[in-house]
Write a structure and sequence with these properties.
heterodimer; A: about 350 residues; Rossmann fold; seven-stranded parallel beta sheet; three-stranded mixed beta sheet; 12 helices; B: about 160 residues; alpha+beta; Alpha-D-Glucose-1,6-Bisphosphate, Chain A, domain 4; seven-stranded antiparallel beta sheet; about 25% helix
């Protein structure tokens, strides 16, 4: 059986390609000619050059594909305007859905995000029935909300079955462009003060997100959204785990809402002066003060099972060390625990 | 090597189940590497649990000069499958004729509904004993067994598509 994956060079798409190959699928990947294909090297996949924004390059891309997994996205909290984010999220999704419908695909699985289910200012767990009511959403969050709406509308018009997957904060391996989720680990370890934040998040392994996509494709109900997440944790507990896995100190002090926001503003200002991408933005700082806690019960009933958060973070930390996303001076001060070392050995074995 | 494989096929579970339970030996025609499949016996006294045994004969693909030295039993095995209609699960056992005493290979095949009932996910779990922990040989053996189950299911799908 053949599956098409868009966004195959991103962390979700790449883990998904690997999971599909493990499950015996023939995989076709849509990649922009200008994309860095390092993450697809040595994978037995069929390359289809094209761009989700250029619908002519999508003619025939989904032919003979039972499933289309649309994981292509612009996941960024800085450097792009709302229009640019919307164009990829909305127009790109419509184009892929049109191609899937013309090819008579069985169903399309669109990768969204748990941010579309909203957040809470108190430690409350949300699920697929919750609606988005955030007062000051980031541009990225808005683009994902608009993407979902466009996807449901287009699939209804074209008579294509749609399943939407909403992953939590996805961390792990095969992230060749350092996504904001893995970057949150880098930022914490790079911070000499090792501050933590007042809110909470739902951390999920990229491998689990990939598995969740396949569960949703095979067993999900058409027209449904599924949260594919892991454990709901306070940021201080996430940071405590990262410190323990890295064999280092922290977290030291929980910033309050105002100081977290000011830290984001300072990072943006400093990045502007230096002409670099900010390590953290005001949007991310605001989000870190909220609770992004979600229940994966619906997809768990279909056979999904999440890896413990500590294991997901161990793999992510190994990946970040392996790919040199952490500076040498930071790595030199770490004493990674056995789980991180095991992952590192495995990664070095693959690289060799 | 994992001793589990999964496969999704675009045929409804009931149709696939029926072919796998009642028409297994007819699938030999759809398998390139199989010379024949001979039905031996079946037990259908229980309407929900049915079992059947077949002798399978693979096409020997050895160089001609080695052919005289190869025993036909090396390419022959008996497969016994016990299907349970209630949970769409089968327990199977394969006995290679050449290594009947030393090797045992059995497992479970589970069929679950998928893609809103239009498809079936087939999960095959295998267990092989008697290889004395020779990891390389074990890996090859698991691969052969799982790939052959996959081919059998694909043959069933092709047969259904031709109906």
């Amino acid at each position: 059986m053949r599956a098409l994956v868009t966004g195959a060079t991103g962390i979700v798409g790449n883990n998904l390609v690997r999971a599909l190959l493990d499950d015996g699928y023939d995989v076709r990947v849509l990649v922009r000619p200008s994309s860095d294909n390092t993450s697809l090297r040595r994978l037995p996949v069929e390359h289809w050059p094209g761009d989700i924004l250029d619908h002519q390059t999508l003619v025939g891309v989904a032919d003979k594909c039972s499933f289309v997994f649309h994981a292509a996205a612009l996941f960024a909290y800085s450097g792009f305007t709302q229009d640019e984010l919307d164009q990829i999220a909305v127009d790109g999704t419509r184009n892929v859905i049109t191609a899937a419908a013309h090819a008579n695909a069985e169903r399309i699985v669109v990768t969204s995000s748990t941010v579309t289910l909203g957040s809470a200012t108190t430690p409350a767990v949300r699920d697929e029935r919750d609606t988005f009511e955030d007062k000051y959403p980031s541009s990225y969050t808005l683009s994902k909300v608009r993407q979902e709406k466009a996807a449901f509308e287009a699939c209804r018009e074209l008579g294509l079955e749609l399943v939407v997957v909403c992953p939590g904060l996805t961390v792990g391996s095969f992230d060749y462009r350092l996504s904001p989720s893995n970057a949150s680990i880098v930022n914490y370890l790079n911070d000499p003060m090792r501050f933590t934040f007042p809110g909470g998040c739902n951390i999920v392994s990229a491998r689990d997100v990939a598995a969740g996509h396949i569960v949703a494709a095979c067993h999900g109900a058409a027209g449904e959204r599924y949260v594919v997440g892991g454990e709901n944790l306070h940021w201080r507990d996430v940071h405590r785990m990262i410190s323990a896995l890295g064999g280092t100190f922290g977290p030291t002090y929980t910033l309050n809402n105002t100081s977290t926001y000011l830290a984001g503003a300072a990072a943006e200002m400093s990045a502007r002066v230096m002409g670099k991408r900010p390590s953290v933005t005001r949007d991310e700082a605001t989000m870190a003060c909220h609770y992004y806690w979600y229940s994966s019960d619906a997809i768990s009933r279909l056979g999904y099972a999440a890896t413990p958060c500590e294991d997901a973070l161990a793999e992510a930390l190994a990946w970040l060390i392996h790919r040199s996303y952490l500076s040498e001076s930071v790595v030199d001060r770490l004493t990674p625990d056995d789980r991180v070392r095991e992952h590192l050995q495995a990664l070095r074995g693959v690289a060799a | 090597m994992s001793n589990r494989s999964k496969l999704l096929v675009m045929q409804p579970r009931d149709r696939l189940h029926t072919v796998l339970v009642t028409r297994t030996w007819e699938l030999a025609d759809f398998l390139d590497e199989i010379a024949s499949a001979e039905f031996i016996e079946q037990d259908t006294r229980d309407t929900r649990v049915k079992s059947a045994s077949h002798v399978w004969q693979a096409k020997p693909s050895v160089p001609p000069m080695l052919a005289p030295h190869v025993n036909a039993d090396h390419f022959r095995w008996t497969a016994t499958v016990r299907w349970n209609d209630d949970d769409y699960e089968s327990r199977w056992r394969i006995e290679p004729h050449a290594l009947k005493q030393s090797l045992s290979c059995d497992g479970v095949v589970t069929l679950s509904e998928a893609v809103g009932g239009r498809a079936t996910q087939v999960a095959v779990d295998a267990k092989i004993d008697g290889l004395n922990d020779q990891q390389g040989v074990e890996t090859i053996a698991y691969r052969i067994v799982l790939v052959n189950w996959q081919k059998l299911v694909e043959a069933a799908v092709r047969r259904l598509a031709n109906e």
